[in-house]
């Protein structure tokens, strides 16, 4: 039987998965969290399926070393390629596809849902397929936005940043023209530029954070399986990255902005 006092493991290709970590800290402040950001190989979304699977296996193996009770793939690309499956054994697992799809279906009023993600995520059709199993008459529109991840990883994130705004317009205005009322941010990097996305899409479009929804989904899974750590005290949050610790720390502060009393331990690591 899995020990409920073990940590929760989260991984992503970069800093984007910290959107899931932020939600976990908000909902489960007593839990220990181990996060892996594979910043040396970001983005995953432009890689082949075989390469993505190899990277994912290495990410899983790294987190298993900590004896975690649950692993969250906060990477939309990996979640899409795995299609909800993992070989984590007795531990719990979730990606971001089902949680975000459920949130979108429950949010939309007109049944017109947009999805943005990496090229690999959009090619997989995973979000669209999941939505249609839940809401067969949904009208779904997809758009790959490959430039969003490098923009976020390099700090080009504000509504005053002309390159970010212009690229967002190129990607998003066709979706806006389709009359969608709900947009899934199918990569966990995207919420960091949600102000830019909202500005382009307009106030009538609800944004669904795949990372945030995965955090909520993980909370429910842990609760249903009796694996929530007893309340009392604050958990430890340990972040690992495979490239520059300094750049990772700077970006992590953007993603975790607004969280009080969170002590972050950031270390570099290598994946094999």
Automatic annotation (TrEMBL):
Substrate binds at residues 12-13, 44-45, 188-189. Belongs to the aspartate/glutamate racemases family. It holds the Pfam family Asp_Glu_race. Keywords: Cell shape, Cell wall biogenesis/degradation, Isomerase, Peptidoglycan synthesis. It catalyses: L-glutamate = D-glutamate. Its EC number is 5.1.1.3. The gene is murI. The active site is at 75 (proton donor/acceptor), 187 (proton donor/acceptor). InterPro entries: Asp/Glu/hydantoin_racemase (IPR015942), Asp/Glu_race (IPR001920), Asp/Glu_racemase_AS_2 (IPR033134), Glu_race (IPR004391). HAMAP family: Glu_racemase. It comes from the Bacteria. It comes from Candidatus Faeciplasma pullistercoris. Pathway: Cell wall biogenesis; peptidoglycan biosynthesis. Provides the (R)-glutamate required for cell wall biosynthesis. It is an enzyme of class 5 (isomerase). GO terms for biological process: cell wall organization; peptidoglycan biosynthetic process; regulation of cell shape. GO terms for molecular function: glutamate racemase activity. This is Glutamate racemase.
């Amino acid at each position: 039987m899995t020990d409920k006092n073990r940590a929760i493991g989260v991984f992503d290709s970069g800093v984007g998965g910290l959107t899931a970590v932020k939600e976990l800290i908000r909902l489960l402040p007593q839990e220990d969290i181990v996060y892996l950001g594979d910043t040396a190989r970001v983005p995953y979304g432009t890689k082949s399926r075989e390469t993505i699977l190899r990277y994912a296996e290495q990410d899983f193996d790294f987190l298993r070393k900590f004896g975690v009770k649950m692993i969250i793939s906060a990477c939309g690309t990996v979640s899409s390629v795995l299609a909800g499956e993992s070989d984590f054994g007795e531990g719990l697992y979730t990606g971001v596809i089902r949680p975000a799809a459920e949130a979108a279906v429950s949010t939309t009023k007109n049944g017109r849902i947009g999805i943005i993600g990496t090229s690999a995520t959009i090619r997989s059709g995973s979000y669209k397929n999941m939505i249609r199993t839940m809401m067969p008459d949904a009208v779904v529109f997809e758009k790959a936005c490959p430039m969003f991840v490098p923009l976020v990883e390099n700090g080009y994130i504000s509504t005053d940043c002309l390159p970010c705004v212009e690229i967002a317009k190129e990607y998003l205005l066709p979706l806006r023209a389709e009359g969608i009322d709900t947009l899934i941010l199918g990569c966990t990097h995207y919420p960091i530029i949600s102000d830019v996305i909202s500005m382009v899409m307009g106030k009538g479009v609800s944004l669904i954070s795949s990372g945030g929804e995965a955090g909520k989904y993980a909370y429910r899974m842990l609760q249903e399986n009796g694996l929530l750590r007893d309340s009392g005290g604050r958990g430890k949050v340990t972040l690992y990255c495979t490239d520059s610790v300094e750049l990772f720390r700077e970006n992590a502060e953007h993603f975790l902005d607004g969280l009080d009393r969170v002590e972050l331990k950031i270390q570099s690591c290598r994946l094999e």
